[in-house]
Hints:
Elements: H1 3-23, H2 27-77
Amino acid sequence: MGNKTKGILALLGIGALAYWKYKNSSEEEKQAVKDKINTAKDNLNKWGNDVKSKANDVASQVQNKVDEAKTKAEDALS
């Protein structure tokens, strides 16, 4: 059995254990899990938005540099 197969089996086992534990948890414990998942989702969305914003800023800066270079080249040719 290869490492990939063992890894997949391990993930399936962990998933099954987590599902069983969640199913047998109290309502308070289930709510705590839901809260953690929602917090993680919100943090991931915030991080994604930050990355997107930074990428847009860099793209804007690059576009400005390209426009400046075009203007300088046009002025040099005139």
